Amino acid sequence: MGGLFLVHNPIVEVAGLKWYYGVGATAIFWNYDNVFYANDNFGSVNLGIMGALGLDYKFADAPINLSLDWVPTFVIGEGAYNGFRADMGALSVRYTFN
Asked: Which among 11, 34, 61, 94 could disulfide-bond with 65, CB atoms 3.0 to 4.6 Å apart, if both were Cys?
């Protein structure tokens, strides 16, 4: 779970194309249940600071939006998510309203 504050800037050479950047925070809730050892169940909550950098394209003749972003994150807490993570991001396809 997280939230980002994003700033969008147009790329004037291509209609409908924007680039964006931003910062935000995240909370990662996780639980580990080891089925082989009865007493090996644990979980935690990790907190993190995220950055974002991406491209956003809105089709002029269709209610579709595409975006591609990279979200480097620094996570504080226990487990495998702890530390700097540069492997987070997304490719999104959205329906848009006028």
From this structure: 94
